[in-house]
Amino acid sequence: MHLEVKSKNKLLISAAVMTVVALGHSFLWNAPARAQAPRETLSAQAEKMPAWVTAAGGKAEFEVASIREDTGPFKPPSFALSADDSFRPTGGLFHADFSLPTYIEFAYKQWLSLEQEQTMLANLPKWVSTDRFLIEARAEGNPTKDQFRLMMQSLLADRFGLRLHFETREVPVYAMELIKPGKLGPKLHPHAEGPACDVVPTPAAKGAPPNLDVYPYSCDVYGLTRLPNHDMLMGSRNTTAELIASALPSLGALGRPVVDRTGLSGRFDFTVEFSPEATVPPAGSTAETEPGTAFLEAAKEQLGIKLESTRAPLENPVIDHVERPSEN
Q: Is 247 in contact with 170 (CB distance < 8 Å)?
């Protein structure tokens, strides 16, 4: 089974192996809310904008855009609406077929854990999380992925009436740390030590397992595939420690956010093989059955990282207003 995930809740199913291409808020980027704080000036808010917003050029809009509710077959997007840098230029064309949370996370470059997404949606109408909207749009020139994010921010504000802000809350998290400072595990290494991104490894023959050391074949995406022994293989190429931490909650089914405290900088390649659940002996069997390797243990052995349970302040999106868009 091949499974491509553009967001935690949106799945595309086809035949072969299972691959998860990881994820996926008007441009008015709302500065994080502070309880009872005085209203900040626009210049102060601008200083708090994420660096990617400034680098992408600030506020942007599509030239034309249509939105309609879609109840038919799912239509794949023009590129992955993910928080990573996976992207191929589209010549300004954009189309996607998701529910509103995916568009919000894409627009604001968020990779929310399931718990964070549930908190964001808790007091909103059911349609926000269940109804899919087909968005087809065109932009001038050949925008980057981050420029498309800013256009989506404007579209969400104009057509969905979306207003949101960010609040800092202390929540349960996993702290991702190196077991031995400065020492990487055998399956985590600097990207420069592996194949370059413009040298795409030859895919395995149809039906053969993927290369356990170079996976996935493209850079800047996250892959998750089931191996013939029923274990799972996760990997990414040309990624960062911060993105690894962002991806682990959904791909590793951890149930809480992960914060990066490795101190690692630069770009990395990694793969990790793990069993999604322990093997249960057949009823009445007295034979010992070796349990599958839990993800947390696999991360220690193969990546040289440990995930310590703790609490940390995180900025969480809070939706102040949203409404169904008028179709056109």
A: no
Sequence letter at residue 294: A
pLDDT in tens, 127-142: 999 999 999 999 999 9
Q: Are the C-beta atoms of 160 and 100 separated by less than 8 Å?
A: yes
Decide: 237 and 250 in contact? Cβ < 8 Å: no
For 166, the enclosing helix (H) or strand (E) is strand 163-178
Query: Contact at 8 Å (CB) between 228 and 235?
Result: no
- Identify the weakest region by mean pLDDT among 21-25, 78-82, 135-139, 248-252: 21-25
Amino acid, single-letter form, for residue 110:
Q
Intra-chain end-to-end CA distance of the chain, in Å: 36
Cβ atoms within 10 Å, residue 172: 12
Q: Using only C-alpha atoms, what is the Rg of the chain?
A: 21
Read off the pTM: 0.70
Gap between the Cα atoms of 56 and 139, Å rounded = 14
Residues 113, 56: Cα–Cα separation, whole Å? 25
CA distance 108 to 246: 14
pLDDT at 30: 28
> Over 90: is that where the pLDDT of 83 sits?
no
Angle at 309 between CA 84 and CA 252, to 5 degrees: 40
User: 142-152 pLDDT, tens per residue?
Assistant: 999 999 999 99
Q: Are 238 and 200 in contact (CB under 8 A)?
A: no
What pLDDT shows up at residue 222?
A: 85
Report yes or no: 97 and 168 within 8 Å, Cβ to Cβ.
no
Sign of torsion over alpha carbons 307, 309, 314, 319: positive
Q: Residue 18: pLDDT above 50?
A: no
Banded model confidence at residue 35, pLDDT cuts 50, 70, 90: very low
Candidates 97, 92, 104; CA nearest to 147 is 92
User: Smallest Cα–Cα separation from 77: which of 43, 106, 49?
Assistant: 106
